Amino acid sequence: MMLLSSFLYLIGRPRVEDGLERVVLSGVYNVKSGRKLASHKWSPRLVVLCGTRLLVYPSTDCSDKPHVFQLTNGKVEEHKSKKHDHSLAFSCGGQTYYVQFESWLESMKWLRLASKVASQQPCTLDLSSCSLELVPDCLFSHTDLTCLNLRHNYLGERPHHVPTEQQGYLDDLTRFQQLRSLNVADNSLGLFPSCLCDIATLTELNVASNRLEELPPCIANLESLQVLHAECNHLTSLPTELQQLQHLTLLGIAFNRFTEVPEVLTEMKGIENVVLTGNRLQKLPVELMSKLTHIRRLDLRSNRLELTSVENVTFLALDSLTHLDMSYNSVAELDVRVLKQLTHLCCQGNGMSSLQVPGERLEVLNASHNKLSTIEITPPPHNLVTIDVSCNAFEKLPESLCDLKGLKLIDASRNKLNCLPPRIFWHVPKLTRLRVGHNRLSALPDRVDNCLLKELDLQHNRLTHLPAALLMRAHRLRVLNLSCNRLVTLPQLGPSEKLKNVEELYLSSNYLVEQSLLVIAGYPRLKVLHMAYNLIKTIPARFFVRLEQLEDINLSGNHLTQLPATITQLPKLQVLRAHSNHLTSLPDFSQAKLLKVLDVGCNELREGSLSGDLLSQLSELDLGETQQFSKAEALVNGSSGLALLGAGPDGQDSTLWRYGCTQTYGQRNNLCVRQVLRPTYGADKNEGLFAVFDGGRNADVPQQLQTSAAEIVQEEVRKHQEGNKDNSHMKYSVLTAHKRLGSVGQKLGSSGVFCHLQRLGEDTYTLHLANVGTCQAVLCREGVAVSLSRCHTLVGAPEEGVRVMEVDGMFTEDNKVSGVTEATRQLGRNYLHPTIIPDPYVHSVSLTPRDEFVILACRGLWDYVAPMEAVDAVRSKNNPLKAAKLLRDIAQGCGSQDNISVVVVRLQECDEPEDNCAVIQPEDLPPSMENLTVSDSGESDTKADGSEGRTNGNGVNVSEGVEGSVSTILDDRSSVSSLQSTSNSAGSQADEQESKVALADVTAGLDKHAIQEAVHRDRHKKAYQSKSHSLTYGAERPLKNGWKADRGGWVSDNAVDDSDEEGTENIATEVQVEVEVYTPSHTPSHKSNIVTIVNAVVATTQPVENGVHEEKDKPTSEQNGAINGHADAEKTPLKSSKRANGSVVPDSDVICKIEIAPPKPPPRSYSSPPTLAVDTSTDGSTSPVRKRAVENGHAANGHEMQGVEEETEEYDTAL
């Protein structure tokens, strides 16, 4: 099988006969000679750029002898002519040829490559990658040449049968008497050219990547040599003659086959820098290391070291060591406190649990991707500039960091931090970058003073508020990322305009409302604004007046019904995303001349929202599943510059699965990702094929793969369908796609993932998947992320690094193979074979009803969003298009600036619609809702701070802050859709509750739809799906005992969790609330005044003895039957109400009524908070609260309306 794979690869490599593979550029163009004769006119000729020569043939073929130009002695420049555009002038030896090209881009390509040779300095010459077999003869005229680069050619020593008169071989380089630097790397020499040892003037020699097995003893003749690069060879030892090179200071022997440190290094007293990266070292012998006292820099990255705490004495004698790199080994414990001169330490990727570092001179510490919870640095590192401890297990940062006056960068992202040092924002004078995203921070230090931060990353935490002075005194902030937190408001800004310098602001996935817009509008230099998935309903027209620098805006996932017209007047606006709102129309974007990307999918756009002028200026338009798609598709026909994304309302023609997709440019001008979307595939149209390709910085390879992928997979299925039930057709599909790339894949490449949904029986489906590179796929199985692919990078798959080194490959410090790409397997990149290969990872899985959806995406998503986070974020999204867009927005909110391509294939529908309420845990609530407490009586409860809370007649303590936040979050539109569906199923659980209480004060005005959307985005939690559709609030503290989690939410099982250590005497009360809402437009005629009916049920957990709960006041069987809807309503002795799902609930103990006066239309389209009147009595009498509301009538509502109007005027004045 491996031989066949290699055969497919080899026959796929492009080959050109007659040695033309050495040709760099060639073509037939109009050519004119520079001689001033009338006979010399423009005529088509064959022009070839080969190495350092320009070959101009007399005709269009190569049958005649060409005229040869030596560009090393000439010049190349643009030629301006009125009749002949895109021309270049090639001059050499007093003769000039003018060549006219077909396009400006083609002429610039020739100019760049020819100028590389023609414009060389007399003393420095770069002839790398010129396909040279011989050194040009004209080169030897430059006797004063000092620096010569011949890397990646086909040079060699003179064969024995060739006479010495024929020059051009490496033997002739001795004629350069002043040559000091020579690079002959990657020439496939095989043996070290001994003739190079005769160039006594050399101070730097590079013989890397030549498959050398040894260095000759005569290398000692290079007495002036200071730098020797011999990386990527087959060296296993060094000659003892190297110790004669007294001036040698740097020895690069990385990516060879050393199993131990060469002993000759102990005798080379002048050497300071030794690079042993990528060898096979397992131990560092104490006796040998004790003699390396002269070494200052030691690079041991990517070896097989397994040092223990006892073996750390190895470093005892390295008194002069200043730079140590131990990254990507297997060092569990590292103690280098004896290295008093150490300034730079890199030890990431070891999985170490203990690290002890000296602090006398330490400047840079990189210990990321380990298992560290503490680091011991003694004495305090007062010279520390950069510290990176990301991807570890830190719960807190040491307070001593605040005493480091020179510290500029702290990266502690992806840890378990609960708090930051109190002095972090005012006692570190030079700190400019602080990255603490993906932690557990719930609050920040309050004191902020003289803060010089330019970049602050706080994404993916649990922040409910920010310090009051953060935005006011952190006046140098340029980038602020607060995405995926629990913020409701933002602190105020300072008065000075000069101190408002934020350029990039990321606020996605929070609880922000309109009040936050006033703060954001105070940043006149803002360029990027992402505030998707918040609770914003309207944007005032004056909001964008001062934000003239905005280039990228994301307002998706809010509750907007329209966009202000002033958004079209932003002079620099390039990207606008406002999908997943409730937009019915779009403003006129004719003034936004620079607008290139517009995403308004998943809205409610009416006819006439799009215009031809708008479409003519866009390069990407995403309409999603809107009725406008067909109209836009008709307008786009014939337009080559617009990419129309999304799908029309009839685009989902498969009944087996539904898909949604999205892709975006990011910060690049070129879209280098492509997708294959075939929901109905195969001969019977009952299969599916989906694929994602990412070309990095090129779009040619992904484009060709997109065109041919479906046909290739179908051909391979036919070839392997007889007697073959495995996934071999996927492997050969990838290899065939690689072969058909041809010359396009010679130097370019692409990652890719193929997903084939194949039908094997009547109701049996199998998912076949194959991937190469960084494009990956994840399957959601009962809420758990199952990886179907493998990330072919050095970090994602360590075995790939071993394979790369086995085939003489190398990778740089940023983990790029040959310094080109991070992917170790790709389609294309033939010139890097066998370092980069196209062999895919193939996986098959039989689909079951437990499998919910599949996510295919490129590295633009997976580098910023973990698979489980992605599954949690979109599991409740029944609409796969919204799910794909959500993942894209999350990645961009986390800082992704790359191309992003996401495909979500929904295999099973959600149990319930995504717009229903989800179960909200106490820690998920915004701060204004976390003070809710419930007592067992109607008397006042005492808070922790000693103040008394206000309760209603049933013991519900509602603080004033809760009421204020409730009124501001109310959304009549979403409340009708979400709360009305909430009451459909909770009635069947009424018999499981032990006591009933009205909770109208708590739920009045809650926008449950908005809260649910926000909770779905909290990726610290599992998927928030709800079977019971009940809005659940915890009281006083998170509920632990007596509750269990199922797929739908949290329900009581009257049991105790075995993992609980606390007693059950003080278990908090859980309150379940379900609400039906009627607005005036939806209210029946006999209920014109009753707008909201609340059914509130309180489940109280009693003390437990021996693990069993004691039940009290258990309802009778007759009552249970009435509550569950099993008994006939007419025979029920209790006064009851019938729910929409058929269940019946007694009114006497369960139902309490809330009246909301219909609000008047306020001016300027601002919605006013409703007036609430709660009837909590059980005997039918009017409560004092309801009586006051009836007496006041609409006056109270008018008073509140007046307050809203005043607030509006104040807001506009501030703007």
Automatic annotation (TrEMBL):
Coiled coil: none annotated. Residues 918-996, 1104-1215 are annotated as: Disordered. Signal peptide: none annotated. Residues 22-119 form the PH domain. It comes from the Eukaryota. This is PHLPP1 protein. Residues 1107-1116 have a biased composition (Basic and acidic residues). InterPro entries: Leu-rich_rpt (IPR001611), Leu-rich_rpt_typical-subtyp (IPR003591), LRR_dom_sf (IPR032675), LRR_domain-containing (IPR050216), PH-like_dom_sf (IPR011993), PH_domain (IPR001849), PPM-type-like_dom_sf (IPR036457), PPM-type_phosphatase-like_dom (IPR001932). Residues 658-907 form the PPM-type phosphatase domain. Pfam families: LRR_8, PH, PP2C. One of its GO terms (cellular component) is cytoplasm. Residues 1174-1184 have a biased composition (Polar residues). It comes from Branchiostoma lanceolatum. Residues 1203-1215 have a biased composition (Acidic residues). Keywords: Leucine-rich repeat, Repeat. Residues 953-967, 975-985 have a biased composition (Low complexity).
